[in-house]
What we know:
Blueprint: E1 15-18, E2 23-26, E3 33-36, E4 42-47, E5 50-54, E6 60-64, E7 74-76, H1 78-98, H2 104-113, H3 117-130, E8 145-148, E9 150-151, E10 170-171, H4 174-188, E11 198-201, H5 210-223, H6 225-228, E12 232-235, H7 246-254, E13 257-265, H8 269-275, H9 281-293, E14 297-304, H10 308-326, E15 333-338, H11 349-360, E16 367-370
Parallel strand pairs: 8-11, 11-12, 12-13, 13-14, 14-15, 15-16
Antiparallel strand pairs: 1-2, 2-3, 3-4, 4-5, 5-6, 6-7, 9-10
Helix pairs in contact: 1-2, 3-4, 4-5, 9-10, 10-11
Bound molecules: iron/sulfur cluster.
Amino acid sequence: MPALPPPSPRTAPFEVHEGTHTLHLLTPDEEVQWSFDRRGRLIAGHDGGFHFLVGMDGRVLLRDRRERTRPPPVRLTFEEVAPLYDRVAADIAAVLAFSLEENTARAWLALAAARDAETYRRDAAAFAEVYQPVSVLPPDCYRALVVQLAEGCCYNRCAFCTLYQDVPYRVKTAADLEAHLDGIAALFGDALALRNKVFLGDANALALDQALLLDHIEHVRRRFPDVAAGGFHSFLDTFTRPLKTEAQLSALRGAGLRRVYVGLESGHRPLRAALRKPGTVAGTREVVAACRRAGVGVGIIVLVGAGGAEFAAGHLRDTMEAIRAMDLGETDLVYLSPLTGAMQPPGLEIASQTAAFRAALSESPFKVARYDLRRWIY
Ligand code: SF4
């Protein structure tokens, strides 16, 4: 795949579609489309058979839409993607040259026209001032506003995980959080309206001291009440002591916590040991039960392909046993997350394990979905 694929021929004028939070520029055959947020920032598009998802950190996720096999997207660096902004600018200029009517869409488009590659470079630098890298979000939180109450992972030793390798673990004080929220407000501006919930990061935000956690949540709610109205979501580890009690989880539910995401990875003990996953399956079940009694939704993450063929049968059997014992409800989720990176098994192992888990979970009352870390960018 080329770094930046060539454009499609522009055979017809672009149309402008104005939404509540996004503006779209598209050709009548929809072969080319660019989408902008309220600040005129390009957020996504497609052209020449490729889809672009533009990250706030300046990187772009490039997906080949021509392949039926859905190959994993490629992450382009800012340098690789910079010429894309010239292409988009030329398309905007063509629309502005022919559409003379003064209206809100034109004013919105003028905002987009005022941005060039240098603007996007400055945005990426501003993002790096405000955030540690946002490496992962559950798929139902792709439109969430990430607020990093902490940075990194307090354990950081799972054998399969490199997400926070270079991020020292740190809990934010009230003053740190205030500065972080100031930065977020400046970074997003009007585009905050696109965000529909809050995701509390990073890996163990809910392991924070309960009083500090409730203060932080309240702080975020006061600052961004509209986004907070969509609820708070976060990862929940099941091994950092002291674990949250049912009463504490109820208090967090009262503060707006809607769903937690628990990395079970596997119910098979030998595989969990090989993965260096801390905690126990029984302990995870207890935490999940406490969440459910407290009215907090749960998303269970299963690492598909972990251990390869050697562990496949035990992984499926024991993980299914653990999930069944959790007695999840219809508002809960199970995410099947394909293992990537150095421990990824060869060949078709992931596809066959995915099919096996899907078949085993097919009669479940809860939703089962794919959670592929490679297919998303913040
Ligand atoms: S606990 Fe989660 S974030 Fe931390 S190392 Fe393990 S998988 Fe990665």
